[in-house]
Amino acid sequence: MSAPEPFDAVDVIRAKRDGGRVPEDALRWMIDAYTRGYVADAQMSAFTMAVLLNGMERDEIRVMTDAMIASGERMSFASLDKPTADKHSTGGVGDKITLPLAPLVAAFGVAVPQLSGRGLGHTGGTLDKLESIPGWRAALSNEEMLAQLADVGAVICAAGTGLAPADKKLYALRDVTGTVEAIPLIASSIMSKKIAEGTDSLVLDVKFGTGAFMKDYARARELAETMVALGADSGVKTTALLTDMNTPLGLAIGNANEVRESVEVLAGGGPSDVVELTVALAREMLALAGQPDADVAGALADGRAMDAWRRMIRAQDGDPDAALPTPRETHAVTASRSGVVTRMDAYDFGLAAWRLGAGRARAQDPVVHAAGIDLLVKPGDAVSEGQTLFTLSADDGARFERALDALDGAFEIGDTAAPREPLVRERISA
Ligand code: URA
Same domain for 144 and 283? Predict the structure, then answer.
Protein backbone atom coordinates (compact mmCIF):
# COMPACT_ATOMS: atom_id res chain seq x y z
CA MET A 1 0.00 0.00 0.00
CA SER A 2 1.34 3.47 -0.84
CA ALA A 3 2.12 5.91 1.99
CA PRO A 4 -0.62 8.43 2.85
CA GLU A 5 -0.21 11.88 1.31
CA PRO A 6 0.94 14.44 3.93
CA PHE A 7 -1.23 17.34 2.68
CA ASP A 8 -4.56 17.98 1.07
CA ALA A 9 -4.69 19.99 -2.17
CA VAL A 10 -7.93 21.66 -1.10
CA ASP A 11 -6.22 23.13 1.99
CA VAL A 12 -3.40 24.50 -0.16
CA ILE A 13 -5.90 26.02 -2.62
CA ARG A 14 -7.94 27.54 0.22
CA ALA A 15 -4.85 29.10 1.81
CA LYS A 16 -3.98 30.90 -1.42
CA ARG A 17 -7.60 31.68 -2.26
CA ASP A 18 -7.95 33.48 1.08
CA GLY A 19 -4.81 35.53 0.44
CA GLY A 20 -2.59 33.60 2.80
CA ARG A 21 0.87 32.19 2.54
CA VAL A 22 1.32 28.51 1.66
CA PRO A 23 3.75 26.82 4.08
CA GLU A 24 6.96 25.62 2.44
CA ASP A 25 6.42 21.88 2.90
CA ALA A 26 2.83 22.10 1.60
CA LEU A 27 3.90 24.05 -1.49
CA ARG A 28 6.72 21.60 -2.27
CA TRP A 29 4.25 18.75 -1.88
CA MET A 30 1.67 20.44 -4.15
CA ILE A 31 4.18 20.73 -7.04
CA ASP A 32 5.51 17.22 -6.55
CA ALA A 33 2.04 15.68 -6.23
CA TYR A 34 0.87 17.49 -9.36
CA THR A 35 3.88 16.26 -11.33
CA ARG A 36 3.15 12.69 -10.19
CA GLY A 37 -0.50 13.03 -11.21
CA TYR A 38 -1.91 12.84 -7.67
CA VAL A 39 -3.13 16.44 -7.64
CA ALA A 40 -5.65 16.83 -10.48
CA ASP A 41 -5.55 19.45 -13.26
CA ALA A 42 -8.76 20.98 -11.86
CA GLN A 43 -7.12 21.48 -8.47
CA MET A 44 -3.94 22.95 -9.92
CA SER A 45 -6.05 25.29 -12.11
CA ALA A 46 -7.80 26.59 -9.01
CA PHE A 47 -4.44 27.04 -7.30
CA THR A 48 -2.83 28.91 -10.22
CA MET A 49 -5.88 31.18 -10.49
CA ALA A 50 -5.60 31.93 -6.75
CA VAL A 51 -1.92 32.81 -7.31
CA LEU A 52 -2.84 35.04 -10.25
CA LEU A 53 -5.41 36.88 -8.13
CA ASN A 54 -3.59 37.04 -4.80
CA GLY A 55 0.11 36.84 -5.72
CA MET A 56 2.89 35.11 -3.82
CA GLU A 57 5.48 36.32 -1.37
CA ARG A 58 9.07 36.35 -2.53
CA ASP A 59 9.87 33.31 -0.38
CA GLU A 60 6.93 31.34 -1.76
CA ILE A 61 8.17 32.03 -5.31
CA ARG A 62 11.61 30.77 -4.31
CA VAL A 63 10.11 27.56 -2.88
CA MET A 64 7.90 27.05 -5.92
CA THR A 65 10.91 27.49 -8.24
CA ASP A 66 12.96 25.09 -6.16
CA ALA A 67 10.19 22.49 -6.20
CA MET A 68 9.95 22.76 -9.98
CA ILE A 69 13.73 22.29 -10.31
CA ALA A 70 13.52 19.24 -8.03
CA SER A 71 10.88 17.69 -10.32
CA GLY A 72 13.54 16.82 -12.91
CA GLU A 73 17.22 16.48 -13.70
CA ARG A 74 19.86 19.12 -13.00
CA MET A 75 22.57 19.51 -15.57
CA SER A 76 26.12 20.35 -14.63
CA PHE A 77 28.88 22.01 -16.62
CA ALA A 78 31.40 21.59 -13.81
CA SER A 79 33.54 19.33 -16.02
CA LEU A 80 34.22 22.22 -18.44
CA ASP A 81 37.33 24.24 -17.72
CA LYS A 82 35.58 27.52 -18.60
CA PRO A 83 32.81 29.62 -17.10
CA THR A 84 29.28 29.33 -18.49
CA ALA A 85 26.90 32.17 -19.30
CA ASP A 86 23.40 31.99 -20.69
CA LYS A 87 20.78 34.46 -21.90
CA HIS A 88 17.01 34.26 -21.78
CA SER A 89 14.68 36.58 -23.64
CA THR A 90 11.02 36.82 -22.72
CA GLY A 91 10.37 36.90 -26.48
CA GLY A 92 9.69 39.50 -29.08
CA VAL A 93 9.14 40.20 -32.76
CA GLY A 94 12.28 39.95 -34.89
CA ASP A 95 14.23 38.83 -31.80
CA LYS A 96 17.07 36.83 -33.35
CA ILE A 97 19.67 38.02 -30.83
CA THR A 98 20.56 34.53 -29.57
CA LEU A 99 21.99 33.67 -33.01
CA PRO A 100 24.81 36.24 -33.11
CA LEU A 101 25.11 36.47 -29.31
CA ALA A 102 26.02 32.85 -28.48
CA PRO A 103 29.03 32.63 -30.86
CA LEU A 104 30.08 36.19 -29.98
CA VAL A 105 30.35 35.38 -26.27
CA ALA A 106 31.95 31.99 -27.03
CA ALA A 107 34.69 33.84 -28.97
CA PHE A 108 35.92 35.05 -25.54
CA GLY A 109 36.33 31.56 -24.12
CA VAL A 110 33.03 31.54 -22.21
CA ALA A 111 30.75 28.54 -22.76
CA VAL A 112 27.19 29.41 -23.82
CA PRO A 113 24.68 26.58 -23.33
CA GLN A 114 21.61 28.03 -24.99
CA LEU A 115 18.65 25.70 -24.55
CA SER A 116 15.96 27.13 -26.77
CA GLY A 117 12.39 26.56 -27.86
CA ARG A 118 10.16 26.73 -30.87
CA GLY A 119 7.80 29.58 -31.57
CA LEU A 120 4.14 29.59 -30.66
CA GLY A 121 1.93 32.58 -31.45
CA HIS A 122 3.27 35.90 -32.68
CA THR A 123 6.85 35.54 -31.35
CA GLY A 124 9.28 33.32 -33.25
CA GLY A 125 11.36 30.46 -31.88
CA THR A 126 15.14 30.28 -32.07
CA LEU A 127 15.13 26.62 -33.16
CA ASP A 128 12.68 27.35 -36.00
CA LYS A 129 15.02 30.06 -37.26
CA LEU A 130 18.11 27.84 -37.17
CA GLU A 131 16.28 24.97 -38.85
CA SER A 132 16.24 27.15 -41.99
CA ILE A 133 19.91 26.16 -42.35
CA PRO A 134 20.16 22.97 -44.42
CA GLY A 135 21.20 19.98 -42.31
CA TRP A 136 21.18 21.80 -38.94
CA ARG A 137 20.07 19.59 -36.06
CA ALA A 138 18.32 20.91 -32.92
CA ALA A 139 18.28 17.70 -30.86
CA LEU A 140 21.55 16.92 -29.07
CA SER A 141 22.25 14.46 -26.27
CA ASN A 142 23.70 15.86 -23.05
CA GLU A 143 27.06 14.31 -24.02
CA GLU A 144 27.02 15.97 -27.45
CA MET A 145 26.15 19.27 -25.85
CA LEU A 146 29.03 19.05 -23.37
CA ALA A 147 31.49 18.04 -26.09
CA GLN A 148 30.42 20.99 -28.26
CA LEU A 149 30.69 23.41 -25.33
CA ALA A 150 34.22 22.16 -24.63
CA ASP A 151 35.25 22.40 -28.28
CA VAL A 152 33.32 25.28 -29.93
CA GLY A 153 32.04 27.00 -26.78
CA ALA A 154 28.52 27.71 -28.02
CA VAL A 155 25.50 25.43 -28.37
CA ILE A 156 21.98 26.37 -29.32
CA CYS A 157 19.79 23.28 -29.06
CA ALA A 158 16.42 21.96 -27.94
CA ALA A 159 15.86 21.67 -24.20
CA GLY A 160 15.56 17.99 -23.24
CA THR A 161 12.39 16.74 -21.61
CA GLY A 162 14.18 16.04 -18.32
CA LEU A 163 14.51 19.66 -17.14
CA ALA A 164 11.73 20.87 -14.80
CA PRO A 165 8.95 18.50 -15.99
CA ALA A 166 6.62 20.17 -13.45
CA ASP A 167 6.90 23.33 -15.52
CA LYS A 168 5.94 21.56 -18.73
CA LYS A 169 2.74 20.30 -17.15
CA LEU A 170 1.98 23.55 -15.38
CA TYR A 171 2.66 25.74 -18.41
CA ALA A 172 0.31 23.68 -20.60
CA LEU A 173 -2.37 24.00 -17.91
CA ARG A 174 -1.84 27.76 -17.49
CA ASP A 175 -2.11 28.18 -21.24
CA VAL A 176 -5.70 26.89 -21.24
CA THR A 177 -6.89 28.35 -17.92
CA GLY A 178 -6.07 32.05 -18.36
CA THR A 179 -3.27 31.94 -15.78
CA VAL A 180 -0.17 32.54 -17.92
CA GLU A 181 0.10 36.20 -16.87
CA ALA A 182 0.83 35.73 -13.14
CA ILE A 183 4.31 37.09 -12.39
CA PRO A 184 5.15 34.46 -9.68
CA LEU A 185 4.23 31.72 -12.17
CA ILE A 186 6.15 33.23 -15.09
CA ALA A 187 9.23 33.88 -12.96
CA SER A 188 9.28 30.38 -11.44
CA SER A 189 8.64 28.81 -14.86
CA ILE A 190 11.52 30.58 -16.60
CA MET A 191 13.99 30.42 -13.72
CA SER A 192 13.36 26.75 -12.84
CA LYS A 193 14.48 25.75 -16.35
CA LYS A 194 17.47 28.10 -16.37
CA ILE A 195 18.68 27.09 -12.90
CA ALA A 196 18.20 23.37 -13.63
CA GLU A 197 20.31 23.84 -16.75
CA GLY A 198 23.29 24.57 -14.51
CA THR A 199 24.68 27.82 -15.93
CA ASP A 200 27.04 29.90 -13.72
CA SER A 201 25.52 33.17 -14.85
CA LEU A 202 22.43 34.38 -16.65
CA VAL A 203 21.42 37.56 -18.41
CA LEU A 204 17.70 38.17 -18.87
CA ASP A 205 16.35 40.26 -21.72
CA VAL A 206 12.96 41.25 -20.34
CA LYS A 207 10.92 42.93 -23.02
CA PHE A 208 8.08 45.40 -22.62
CA GLY A 209 5.77 46.92 -25.23
CA THR A 210 3.18 45.82 -27.74
CA GLY A 211 5.21 42.91 -29.18
CA ALA A 212 6.23 41.62 -25.75
CA PHE A 213 4.66 39.16 -23.41
CA MET A 214 4.52 41.99 -20.83
CA LYS A 215 2.98 45.02 -22.51
CA ASP A 216 3.37 47.18 -19.43
CA TYR A 217 6.73 48.57 -18.26
CA ALA A 218 5.99 48.34 -14.52
CA ARG A 219 5.01 44.67 -14.81
CA ALA A 220 8.03 43.86 -16.96
CA ARG A 221 10.20 45.52 -14.31
CA GLU A 222 8.55 43.53 -11.52
CA LEU A 223 9.13 40.31 -13.49
CA ALA A 224 12.79 41.25 -14.03
CA GLU A 225 13.33 42.00 -10.35
CA THR A 226 11.63 38.77 -9.30
CA MET A 227 13.76 36.67 -11.65
CA VAL A 228 17.02 38.40 -10.72
CA ALA A 229 16.24 37.71 -7.04
CA LEU A 230 15.48 34.03 -7.79
CA GLY A 231 18.81 33.71 -9.63
CA ALA A 232 20.68 35.24 -6.70
CA ASP A 233 18.88 32.91 -4.24
CA SER A 234 20.11 29.92 -6.24
CA GLY A 235 23.69 31.09 -6.63
CA VAL A 236 23.33 31.93 -10.33
CA LYS A 237 24.78 35.40 -11.05
CA THR A 238 21.83 37.08 -12.78
CA THR A 239 21.20 40.51 -14.28
CA ALA A 240 18.37 41.77 -16.47
CA LEU A 241 18.03 44.39 -19.16
CA LEU A 242 14.59 45.88 -19.78
CA THR A 243 14.32 46.40 -23.53
CA ASP A 244 11.78 48.07 -25.79
CA MET A 245 9.60 45.79 -27.91
CA ASN A 246 7.12 48.32 -29.29
CA THR A 247 8.86 48.18 -32.70
CA PRO A 248 10.15 44.98 -34.37
CA LEU A 249 13.83 44.34 -33.72
CA GLY A 250 15.94 44.73 -36.85
CA LEU A 251 14.56 44.54 -40.38
CA ALA A 252 13.79 40.81 -40.70
CA ILE A 253 10.80 39.03 -39.13
CA GLY A 254 10.54 35.33 -39.91
CA ASN A 255 13.01 32.46 -39.90
CA ALA A 256 15.45 32.25 -42.87
CA ASN A 257 15.51 36.05 -43.20
CA GLU A 258 16.38 36.37 -39.47
CA VAL A 259 19.29 33.96 -39.97
CA ARG A 260 20.47 36.11 -42.89
CA GLU A 261 20.30 39.23 -40.73
CA SER A 262 22.17 37.52 -37.89
CA VAL A 263 24.95 36.55 -40.29
CA GLU A 264 25.18 40.20 -41.38
CA VAL A 265 25.70 41.18 -37.73
CA LEU A 266 28.38 38.50 -37.36
CA ALA A 267 30.04 39.91 -40.49
CA GLY A 268 30.32 43.31 -38.79
CA GLY A 269 27.21 44.89 -40.37
CA GLY A 270 23.47 44.48 -39.76
CA PRO A 271 20.79 46.84 -38.42
CA SER A 272 21.96 49.17 -35.65
CA ASP A 273 19.33 48.06 -33.09
CA VAL A 274 20.24 44.37 -33.47
CA VAL A 275 23.94 45.22 -33.11
CA GLU A 276 23.25 47.44 -30.09
CA LEU A 277 21.30 44.79 -28.22
CA THR A 278 23.70 41.98 -29.15
CA VAL A 279 26.64 44.02 -27.87
CA ALA A 280 24.80 45.12 -24.69
CA LEU A 281 23.81 41.54 -23.78
CA ALA A 282 27.27 40.17 -24.64
CA ARG A 283 28.88 42.78 -22.36
CA GLU A 284 26.56 41.75 -19.52
CA MET A 285 27.30 38.05 -20.02
CA LEU A 286 31.04 38.59 -20.24
CA ALA A 287 31.04 40.87 -17.18
CA LEU A 288 29.29 38.16 -15.15
CA ALA A 289 31.82 35.64 -16.49
CA GLY A 290 34.72 37.81 -15.26
CA GLN A 291 35.56 39.79 -18.43
CA PRO A 292 34.09 43.27 -17.88
CA ASP A 293 36.46 44.90 -20.39
CA ALA A 294 36.05 42.47 -23.31
CA ASP A 295 36.21 44.18 -26.72
CA VAL A 296 32.85 42.86 -27.89
CA ALA A 297 32.44 45.14 -30.91
CA GLY A 298 35.97 44.19 -32.00
CA ALA A 299 35.05 40.51 -32.12
CA LEU A 300 32.17 41.30 -34.49
CA ALA A 301 34.37 43.50 -36.66
CA ASP A 302 37.38 41.18 -36.98
CA GLY A 303 35.59 37.90 -37.73
CA ARG A 304 36.19 36.06 -34.42
CA ALA A 305 32.44 35.83 -33.74
CA MET A 306 31.79 34.70 -37.33
CA ASP A 307 34.39 31.91 -36.97
CA ALA A 308 32.63 30.70 -33.80
CA TRP A 309 29.25 30.81 -35.61
CA ARG A 310 30.52 28.69 -38.50
CA ARG A 311 31.99 26.13 -36.14
CA MET A 312 28.79 26.09 -34.06
CA ILE A 313 26.59 25.48 -37.12
CA ARG A 314 28.92 22.79 -38.53
CA ALA A 315 29.09 20.99 -35.17
CA GLN A 316 25.31 20.46 -35.46
CA ASP A 317 25.54 19.20 -39.06
CA GLY A 318 24.47 22.49 -40.63
CA ASP A 319 26.16 23.99 -43.66
CA PRO A 320 26.93 27.67 -42.93
CA ASP A 321 27.56 28.27 -46.66
CA ALA A 322 24.36 26.65 -47.96
CA ALA A 323 21.71 28.84 -49.60
CA LEU A 324 18.78 29.58 -47.30
CA PRO A 325 15.20 28.91 -48.42
CA THR A 326 13.64 31.63 -50.56
CA PRO A 327 9.89 32.38 -50.82
CA ARG A 328 7.69 31.46 -53.77
CA GLU A 329 5.58 34.62 -53.52
CA THR A 330 6.29 38.17 -52.36
CA HIS A 331 4.10 41.23 -51.97
CA ALA A 332 5.40 44.78 -51.53
CA VAL A 333 3.60 47.38 -49.40
CA THR A 334 4.28 50.97 -50.45
CA ALA A 335 3.94 54.39 -48.82
CA SER A 336 0.60 56.11 -49.47
CA ARG A 337 2.20 59.53 -48.91
CA SER A 338 5.56 61.17 -48.39
CA GLY A 339 6.67 61.90 -44.83
CA VAL A 340 8.40 60.22 -41.91
CA VAL A 341 7.59 56.75 -40.55
CA THR A 342 6.30 57.44 -37.03
CA ARG A 343 5.27 53.97 -35.84
CA MET A 344 5.54 50.27 -36.73
CA ASP A 345 3.69 48.13 -34.23
CA ALA A 346 5.65 45.07 -33.17
CA TYR A 347 2.61 42.98 -32.26
CA ASP A 348 0.84 43.57 -35.56
CA PHE A 349 3.96 42.82 -37.60
CA GLY A 350 4.53 39.65 -35.55
CA LEU A 351 0.94 38.57 -36.12
CA ALA A 352 1.22 39.25 -39.87
CA ALA A 353 4.47 37.22 -40.12
CA TRP A 354 2.75 34.41 -38.24
CA ARG A 355 -0.20 34.49 -40.64
CA LEU A 356 2.25 34.31 -43.55
CA GLY A 357 3.42 30.96 -42.18
CA ALA A 358 6.53 32.00 -40.22
CA GLY A 359 4.96 30.80 -36.94
CA ARG A 360 2.66 28.02 -35.87
CA ALA A 361 -0.84 27.92 -34.41
CA ARG A 362 -0.45 24.48 -32.83
CA ALA A 363 2.74 22.99 -31.38
CA GLN A 364 2.69 20.16 -33.95
CA ASP A 365 2.41 22.44 -37.03
CA PRO A 366 5.45 23.01 -39.29
CA VAL A 367 6.70 26.54 -40.00
CA VAL A 368 7.45 27.90 -43.48
CA HIS A 369 11.09 28.89 -43.23
CA ALA A 370 11.03 31.39 -46.09
CA ALA A 371 7.84 33.14 -44.90
CA GLY A 372 7.98 36.48 -43.12
CA ILE A 373 8.40 40.20 -43.51
CA ASP A 374 11.42 42.26 -44.58
CA LEU A 375 11.28 45.89 -43.53
CA LEU A 376 12.97 48.43 -45.76
CA VAL A 377 12.37 51.33 -43.39
CA LYS A 378 12.01 51.84 -39.63
CA PRO A 379 10.40 54.58 -37.50
CA GLY A 380 12.30 57.83 -37.99
CA ASP A 381 13.07 57.18 -41.67
CA ALA A 382 11.87 59.62 -44.33
CA VAL A 383 9.87 58.04 -47.17
CA SER A 384 8.42 59.20 -50.51
CA GLU A 385 4.98 58.31 -51.81
CA GLY A 386 5.11 54.96 -53.66
CA GLN A 387 8.34 53.83 -51.96
CA THR A 388 8.36 50.22 -50.71
CA LEU A 389 8.05 50.12 -46.92
CA PHE A 390 8.23 46.34 -46.45
CA THR A 391 7.84 43.07 -48.33
CA LEU A 392 5.70 40.11 -47.30
CA SER A 393 6.92 36.61 -48.23
CA ALA A 394 4.97 33.35 -48.28
CA ASP A 395 4.81 30.02 -50.04
CA ASP A 396 1.20 30.66 -50.99
CA GLY A 397 -0.06 34.06 -52.16
CA ALA A 398 -3.47 33.31 -50.59
CA ARG A 399 -1.88 34.13 -47.22
CA PHE A 400 -1.29 37.79 -48.06
CA GLU A 401 -4.85 38.95 -47.44
CA ARG A 402 -5.00 37.94 -43.77
CA ALA A 403 -1.49 39.23 -43.16
CA LEU A 404 -2.48 42.58 -44.68
CA ASP A 405 -5.55 42.63 -42.41
CA ALA A 406 -3.23 42.30 -39.41
CA LEU A 407 -1.18 45.23 -40.73
CA ASP A 408 -4.19 47.52 -41.13
CA GLY A 409 -3.32 50.44 -38.81
CA ALA A 410 0.02 48.87 -37.82
CA PHE A 411 2.18 51.65 -39.20
CA GLU A 412 1.93 55.38 -39.68
CA ILE A 413 3.55 58.03 -41.83
CA GLY A 414 3.44 61.55 -40.39
CA ASP A 415 5.20 64.87 -40.79
CA THR A 416 7.72 64.51 -37.98
CA ALA A 417 8.88 61.56 -35.90
CA ALA A 418 9.11 61.74 -32.12
CA PRO A 419 12.68 61.30 -30.77
CA ARG A 420 13.57 57.61 -30.58
CA GLU A 421 13.29 56.04 -27.11
CA PRO A 422 16.39 54.15 -25.92
CA LEU A 423 16.27 50.43 -26.76
CA VAL A 424 17.76 49.35 -23.43
CA ARG A 425 15.68 51.15 -20.82
CA GLU A 426 17.09 49.86 -17.55
CA ARG A 427 19.46 47.36 -16.01
CA ILE A 428 18.41 45.33 -12.96
CA SER A 429 20.94 43.55 -10.78
CA ALA A 430 20.72 41.82 -7.43
N1 URA B 1 8.05 31.53 -20.79
C2 URA B 1 8.16 30.50 -19.94
O3 URA B 1 9.04 29.67 -20.06
N4 URA B 1 7.25 30.42 -18.95
C5 URA B 1 6.27 31.31 -18.77
O6 URA B 1 5.50 31.19 -17.85
C7 URA B 1 6.18 32.39 -19.67
C8 URA B 1 7.09 32.46 -20.68
Answer: yes
Instruction: With both helix axes pointing from N to C terminus, report the angle between 24-36 and 165-175 in degrees, rounded to the nearest 10.
Output: 80
Closest-CA residue, ligand 1 atom 3, reads: 190
Of all protein residues, the one whose alpha carbon is nearest to atom 7 of ligand 1 is 186
In a domain, 169, yes or no: no
Q: Is the CB of 189 under 6 A from ligand 1?
A: yes
pLDDT (0 to 100) of residue 417: 84
Q: Report the helix count and the strand count for the chain, using DSSP H and E.
A: 16, 13
pLDDT, tens digit, 9 for 90 and up, residues 194-216: 999 999 999 999 999 999 989 99
pTM: predicted TM-score of the whole model, two decimal places: 0.96
pLDDT digits (tens, 9 = 90+) for 252-302: 999 999 999 999 999 999 999 999 999 999 999 999 999 999 999 999 999
Residue 174 annotated to the active site: yes
Q: Cα of 174 to ligand 1 centre, how many Å?
A: 10
Whether residues 312 and 341 fall in one domain: no
Could you tell me the residue range of the domain that residue 103 belongs to?
85-161+176-322
Q: Is residue 35 part of a domain?
A: yes
Residues in Cβ contact with 374 at an 8 Å cutoff, skipping those fewer than 6 apart: 251, 252, 253, 254, 257, 390, 391, 393
pLDDT in the model for residue 17:
98
